[in-house]
Specification:
- This protein is of the alpha/beta class and about 230 residues long.
- The chain folds into 2 domains: about 5-120, Rossmann fold (3-Layer(aba) Sandwich); about 130-220, Orthogonal Bundle (Arc Repressor Mutant, subunit A).
- Helix content is about 40%, strand content about 20%.
- The chain has 8 helices and 11 strands.
- The chain has helices spanning about 10-25, 35-40, 60-70, 85-95, 105-120, 155-165, 175-180, 190-205; strands spanning about 5, 25-30, 50, 75-80, 100, 130, 135, 145, 150, 210-215, 220.
- Strand 1 (about 5), helix 1 and strand 2 (about 25-30) form a beta-alpha-beta unit.
- The two termini are about 30 Å apart.
Length: about 230
Amino acid sequence: MTRILAIEDDETTAREIVSELSRHGFSVEWVADGRQGLVRAVSGEFDAVTLDRMLPGVDGLTIVSVMRNAGIEAPVLMISALTEVDERVRGLRAGGDDYMTKPFASEEMAARLEVLLRRARPQARQTVLRVKDLELDLVTREVRRGGRELGLLPTEFKLLEFLMRNSGQVLTRTMIFEAIWGYHFDPGTNLIDVHLGRLRRKVDQPGLAPLIKTIRGSGYALNATS
């Protein structure tokens, strides 16, 4: 079973994290103190860590820095009430793999962690991504569906690659925006809708089973099953 270490000093937030991750089948250990969290984090016993930025004893930046210096490569999802872009950048540069601000949606937190775990799994070098009859070649940068080349623009290619690498997973607008355009997310922008609309028209042409799904109230997913 996948083991998660949750380092969080706020009991309400910690219970929310533990409950949601347990519901997704993870084994979760909760630590409320920075010093104890550091000891557990460098033990090498965990597959991933959710890490509060501000902690008593030792702060989150120190914990993730020590982890990386000790060769602990488990993905770290940093969670903080500090919303400034500079703080996000500090967290990522210290060794964090992703950064969420409080308050957050429990489902999105679990989804982000699942994506980080999937990326961290060792696998053979993959040069072609496939979902049903859709193929994306990472070397030639060509995309085909049913053998027909689609001719994607660079941003469309990046967007489809992200969807294919996480096929079957609901991806929120924030996750997509941050993966493709970076961390300056404006929730009022229609940039995602414009690019996804163009991509959908190329991938889901008339007569073909639609692959790109809009999940109302949640985000988008590349359908890998139906």
